[in-house]
Write a structure and sequence with these properties.
The complex is a heterodimer of chains A (596) and B (492). Chain A is built from 25 helices and two strands. With 596 residues, chain A is mostly helical. Helices cover 73% and strands 3% of the residues of chain B. The chains are: A mainly alpha (596), B mainly alpha (492).
Amino acid sequence: MNFSPWIVLFSPFAAVIITALVTQKLRKLSSYISVAAVAISFIFSLAIFFGPDGSEGFNWIDLGTFRIEIGYLINDLTKLMLLVVAGVGFLIHVYSIGYMGEDRGRARYFSGLSLFMFSMLGIVLANNFIMMFIFWELVGVSSYILIGHWFDRDAPPAAGNKAFLANRIGDFGFMLGILLIWSASGTVTFEQLAQRWPALGPSPGFMTGAALLVFCGAIGKSAQFPLHVWLPDAMEGPTPVSALIHAATMVAAGVFMLARTFFLFQSSPMALTLILWIGLITSLLAALMATQQDDIKRVLAYSTLSQLGLMVAAMGLSNPQAGIFHLFTHASFKALLFLGAGSVIHRLHHEQNIWRMGGLQKKMPITFWTFLVGTLALIACPPFAGFWSKDEILASAGANIPAFLAIAIVTFLTAFYMSRLFVVAFLGHPRSDHASHAHESPLVMTAPLVILSIAACIAGFPFIASAFIKLPELEGSPIGSMVISIIAFLAGATSGFYLYKGKDKDPIDVPLFEYRFYIDEFYNSLIKWTQDLLANVSGFVDRWIIDGGMVRGLSGITWGFGFALRFLQIGNLQAYAFLFGAGVVLLLYYILFGTK
Amino acid sequence: MNLLVQLTYLSQIIGGLLILGGMPARRTAIIATLIAFVSAFIVFAGYDRMTGGYQFLAALPLVPDWDLKFSIGVDGLSSTLLLLTSIVGLAAIMVSPTVEEGENRYYACILLIAAGAAGAFASLDLFFFYAFHELALIPTFLMIGIWGTGNRQSAAWKITIYLSIGSIILLVGLIGLYLLPPSPQRTFDIVKLQQLASSGVFSGSGSKSIYLLLLLGFGILVSLFPFHTWAPQAYASAPVPVAMLHAGVLKKFGLYGLLRVALPLMPEAARHWAWLLLILVAGNILYVGLATIAQKQLDLTLGYSSVMHMGYVFLGIATYNVIGLNGAALLMLAHGLSIAALFAMCGELRKQTGTLNYLDLGGLATNMPTLSFVFGLATFASIGLPGFANFASELLVFFGAFKTSTPGSAFNEFQIVGTIALWGVVISAVYMLRAYRAIFMGEPQARWQGVRDIPAKIRWAVVLLVAALLVVGLAPRTVLDAVEPGIRLFVK
């Protein structure tokens, strides 16, 4: 019996129970309990990393012929994800001690973080679809709680609702896919499915359909088009939450799930093509939107969407390892960027507009330099981490010219909007009082920045990455894709740098990008004209037709009763109830004797 | 030993009579419900799951000619429902207010409702099974009419007319059932009836119409679409403990009747009418779900949502397989606990603010941290999130619906309705989260500065309910292992 996976999983759960029920009033103690729990998870994740593969579980539900298991599956993918989730999670917990230090809801915040760690680790460990779905839903709950952390404002709870509902819509498809897969194969366990699925007999259409329904879950969780709208709004949550949940881990769960269940998609070219283009469309649209955002967190949010799109595209290109590689490097540098942004926001008294920042190089040197590292990693500057993993995806597009072009354009746009962000927010002169009086953040916040920036520097080198992940041998020479990648990056970075250098306001104005292609507006009117309209019609019908009609019809029948009662002048409820009881007894008596 | 099951209803009947006789109302009622709770818990825990079948049996012959007995006993399903009754009964008494006029009658009525429900679940005789339910209905009507709020007279009349008609249809069906076997075999004994079923006496042509009567009769009592419009208004007007007991417990009588009587006795008829039930289930979930979104105040939202969730139980019943039926049974428990908790807190909100309208409320979480936390948990339970019993049960219902297919073929009618039900999970998230946000979140409003957090007696009642949901949700086998053998008996 291997206890490590259970300790990894249940240590944060214990922290949830303790912080939510016992130490809710003790804000500091709660945060330390929560940090200790994730530290334990990380230590045991390391033990698992160097330990053997395996799978084990117990029956959560057992109806004889139908069993649902809670169990773990340890293989290379699990080991890597455990390190990413617990490692990044630990750093962000530590950072949160500083960032949320003065917050009234600090204990509640850390309960939420621990709940999130429990749920996310559950997804990673799950050895079957149902268990994954259980923790998948719990991740949605913790995200909802943490986005809405500042519940006494209007925007955060609204954003939390939106995130929850978008995820639920995705999960509708996910669950339907699971049910279909189960009804066809009789199992939900990954290992059994991987063996049985390719040999199953149902029509290719059925199998493609089931696989795509499962993919819906990833669309919701990884915020792919057309369910991407919740992620930018989720930035209403505290910044460490954005770093942990909405950049490094939770949104990567969709990509992870695709890698875990890749055998479902492998055999269906149609499903793969659709996945590829969903990923690429998301990536392109989000990159375009990012070029016109003024809120530092929103720029990063759109860049997260864009990078997630690339990971999903890697799945569609039948190269799940490349997608996971990018997930791995992205987790480090995107967490770094968000935490750096948080450091700036924290020191600038919750200022998030990049046009009111500037001149931070001297005032916040650690934040400045680590943010620069994160930026270089994200825009795929060699030899930082993002360069290697993005190139892996670009190379696997290979002969698929449209996909190759799309990824190259995304690379260009990424370099462009990130250099815009960096130039405007950090360089030049301070453009607000808060910016001119900024100071560096405390050690508890800068230490995670430094650690993550080391990872962002080195995690991509093939000789380091290969310790964590097996990269596939690519056919042909990777030099071609590398050259294109570097050209795109250079073009984007230089144009962004020179266009925005020394500017006080945005020289470019594209409302279509700024207003996110008006997709939110479209959804609002779609909901208004479908769901709300149907709801109001149903409400109306129920009140005036079904209720009105039925009840009037029924009371017509009983009108005779009522009339008789009124005639007897005892038309009150007690009398009615009594007569009713007596009538029932009489009726029973009559029928029984009548048949004897 | 056999006294234990009797105590689950007798303690409350005796308590009710003592209160009517002048004993202090609240204290006596709490003692009576506590005794019922402890005995129901011992029965549930003491039920031998390895042996299965009916246990804790006791019988008192009354009319030997008709084989009419006062016969009591439980299996896994009924011991689960007895536990539900006693938990909700205790919680309902705990949240009951101080009543200025007729406090003794008020508490006695609540005890009688709980006693009637418990008696119906414990009865193994068709006559008393029915009679106990009627015993519970009458005080329900009275309490809505006398101590209700809002348009209580109209609500009381509507629920009385509806449920009386349902009861009469049911009665005709039950009498038909009694008369179906040839004369020497006729019996009111449910256990004997179930044994008779295997000999095929209930499979004739008459059984189809009798099953339809039972389905309609029980269905009306459970607010089956389109006979559901009594429910939201009645629950909105009813005193809080009555809404908790009726929506949480008494309504489950109809579902229990289907599982205990209609399905085991007439499996062929049940399969024959499955198509009709499926259509009505789709109405319960999709149409009522949409109507729920249109509601603008909490009590009506909860009332409608309770109607909607009955659709999932009916769907589990319609599947007629081990997975779906276990899901239905577990959902009866889960829904009973969660809706009771929600109604209890809804009542507290009304008491403090005087309104349940979403436009008037907002920002209450600042002043009511505990209430909003527990309400949040109950909301999560109600929309079927993992960790709560509701999730495990709905999951089983879905798997039950998809069990019915030939692998890889097109959707059959069960899967179509199953898909609608799955979409219903999105719908319930829409209206519950909207309600939660409208009431508790947003900027604190000056007019609600005076509200205070949940008082202790209500807090312990809802914590009891939510804790039960969590225990069963985390370890559903505590209930399923008891329920499953009984269901497997009649589902081959």
